[in-house]
């Protein structure tokens, strides 16, 4: 059986600030390969600038790769087939504020993907959007709300609602939990885990937090200066990191988190 996602040799280089043909190119991501199974969660970790967001964007089709291929259930994805990509792989960003249009109601924004990708009638779209709102723990009444009327946590629920609207197989979340305070973050994580159970979604989480990784990830992929240096089951990587950098990365973050927790308790 084929993997839900297979990434083969995906890489990205950028030109310098001036986009002249002779400008030197810098490598943001060296050829990277990994697989993801249905209902599985992969965490992408690494220090700042290691290429995490670049990899996430390439998988979600937000940016085009310089080389490499992506296969969804064994079928190759092409850059120009945005419809196929949009339906199956959705992305949630860190800043739900910025990804929502302040001028349009929540209902209108959730209706958009349905308008372009389904043949549902206006009334059916309306019903469907209300159903999705309830599914992510909001109310049907939120349909008429504008983004500024919602809390940060509610906006992140809307971002999740928009991501699941087309029943995708994969959701890529780029630091989607970082702006939330710990109690809201826990609620959002639980919501995402419930949706995963119910819909069989596979997640790719870009995160700096080993605590979150421990809680949700089946596998971890670690990038160092654009190079994948580990791709392993979470349990194994946390207990036997093998490489000093991996150990240091996981340990450092744990230490920082523990320190922060201690400070908050004081
Ligand atoms: N549009 C771009 N043009 C030029 N260079 C870029 C562009 N986007 C990213 N880069 C470079 O690619 C490298 C990887 O960036 P990326 O944002 O993927 O890192 P990251 O691991 O997600 O970092 P962070 O944790 O800070 O978000 C960095 O050196 C960055 O400066």
Automatic annotation (TrEMBL):
Single GO term (MF): ATP hydrolysis activity
Keyword annotations from UniProtKB, A to Z: ATP-binding, Nucleotide-binding, Transport
Highest rank taxon of the organism: Bacteria
InterPro entries reported in the protein's UniProt record: AAA+_ATPase, ABC_transp_ATP-bind, ABC_transporter-like_ATP-bd, P-loop_NTPase
Name this protein carries in UniProt: Peptide ABC transporter ATP-binding protein
SUPFAM superfamilies according to UniProt: P-loop containing nucleoside triphosphate hydrolases
Keyword Transport: yes
PROSITE patterns registered for this protein in UniProt: ABC_TRANSPORTER_2
Gene3D superfamilies listed in its UniProt record: P-loop containing nucleotide triphosphate hydrolases
Segments forming domain ABC transporter: 5-250
Family: Belongs to the ABC transporter superfamily.
GO biological processes: transmembrane transport
């Amino acid at each position: 059986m084929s993997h839900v996602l297979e990434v083969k040799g995906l890489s990205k280089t950028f030109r310098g600030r001036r986009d002249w043909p002779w400008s030197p190119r810098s490598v943001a991501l060296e050829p990277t390969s990994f697989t993801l199974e249905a209902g599985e969660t992969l965490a992408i970790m690494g220090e700042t600038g290691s290429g995490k967001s670049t990899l996430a964007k390439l998988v979600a089709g937000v940016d085009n790769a310089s080389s490499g291929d992506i296969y969804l259930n064994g079928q190759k994805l092409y850059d120009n087939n945005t419809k196929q990509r949009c339906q199956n792989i959705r992305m949630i960003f860190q800043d739900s504020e910025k990804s929502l249009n302040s001028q349009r109601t929540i209902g209108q924004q959730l209706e958009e993907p349905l308008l372009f990708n389904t043949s549902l009638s206006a009334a059916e779209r309306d019903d469907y959007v209300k159903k999705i709102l309830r599914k992510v723990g909001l109310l049907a009444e939120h349909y008429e709300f504008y983004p500024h009327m919602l809390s940060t946590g509610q906006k992140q629920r809307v971002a999740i609602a928009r991501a699941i609207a087309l029943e995708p197989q994969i959701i890529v979340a780029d630091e989607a939990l970082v702006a939330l305070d710990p109690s809201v973050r826990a609620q959002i994580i639980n919501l995402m885990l419930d949706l995963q159970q119910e819909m069989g979604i596979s997640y790719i989480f870009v995160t700096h937090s080993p605590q979150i990784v421990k809680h949700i990830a089946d596998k971890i992929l670690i990038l160092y200066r654009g190079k994948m240096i580990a791709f392993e089951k979470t349990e194994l990587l946390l207990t036997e990191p093998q490489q000093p950098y991996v150990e240091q990365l996981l340990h450092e973050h744990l230490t920082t988190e523990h320190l922060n927790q201690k400070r908050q308790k004081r």
